[in-house]
Amino acid sequence: MIIIIAAAAENNTLGKNNEMVWHLPNDFQRFKSLTSGHHIIMGRKTFESLVKPLPNRTHVIITRQKEYHAEGCIVVDSIEKALEICPKDEDSYIIGGGEIYALGLPYTDKLEITRVHHNFEGDAHFPKINEDEWEMTASEFNEKDEKHRYDYSYQTYIRR
Questions:
Q1: How far is it, in rounded angstroms, from Cα 74 to Cα 16?
Q2: Model confidence band, residue 70 (pLDDT cutoffs 50, 70, 90)
Q3: N or C: which end of the chain has fewer CB within 10 A?
Q4: Which of 104, 120, 121 is nearest to 112 (CA)?
């Protein structure tokens, strides 16, 4: 199954200047538990925003830069090539950024969205979820607290 996993604001902002504009430690833990042991597909800028490659995952990086190399990662030039690399009998996750989400959406079976209940200014955005194509099958609301400045919900969508 191809799964998009993203944290997006109410206005679909993902980030600004290649950084997230919020900090949700519980969401980081959820991301880690869902993606661990799987292939993760991302754009070059998303990869470069990581401090280092994430442990226990196969990194597939999409870039138009022909000579790009990242130690221990698979580098391709299209979403189709990225998906070909992923095992067909396992879950694979598309983890961003905005352009890669838009390219991957037509191939995706499931969305795992952390909806941050606030509007932010940003330069990267998640594509609008067409409710004719997607059905929300689960939603779990989480109130802000001392570690989480904003309310947020975990939302699962399945393609109709």
A1: 26
A2: very high
A3: C
A4: 104
- Residue 51 pLDDT exceeds 90: no
Amino acid at 59: H
Q: Which two tokens stand for residue 105?
A: 């959406």
Amino acid at 46: T
How many Å apart are CA 4 and CA 95, to the nearest integer? 6
Per-residue pLDDT tens over the stretch 94-105: 999 999 999 999
For 71, the token pair is: 């130690």
Q: What is the pTM (predicted TM-score) of this model?
A: 0.96
**Has residue 21 got a pLDDT over 90?**
yes
Q: What is the mean pLDDT of residues 83-111?
A: 97
Q: Which domains does the chain have, with CATH numbers?
A: 2-159 (3.40.430.10)
145 forms beta bridges with 148
